[in-house]
Amino acid sequence: MASRPYPSFLIYKDAAKEYRWRYQASNTKVIADSGEGYKNEADCQHGIDLVKASYNSPVWVTQNAKE
Question: Does any domain span residue 32?
Fold first, then answer.
């Protein structure tokens, strides 16, 4: 098996047999995850695709956690 490059996305099955993804930085720390399980691997991949497509989205900074 080839060594896994970092940073990269990883798709895996959780204890409930649902697909999830996580994004790991070059130091292997998890910096993002799916936050939910998916019944279908294709739906999980779609979640990754949405994150990749939003790379140029604006960043909002607030001092109020309720915003």
Answer: yes
Which domain CATH number covers 27? 3.30.160.160
β-bridge partners, 30: 24
Query: What is the model's pTM?
Result: 0.83
The span from the CA of 22 to the CA of 48, in Å, is: 9
Q: Which domain holds residue 25?
A: 8-53
Phi, psi for residue 41 in degrees, rounded to 5: -60, -35
The pLDDT tens digits for 27-64 are 999 999 999 999 999 999 999 999 999 999 999 898 87
In three-state secondary structure terms, 64 is coil
- Answer for the pair 20, 44: CB distance below 8 angstroms, yes or no: yes
Amino acid, res. 59 = V
Residue 16: enclosing H or E segment and its boundaries? none
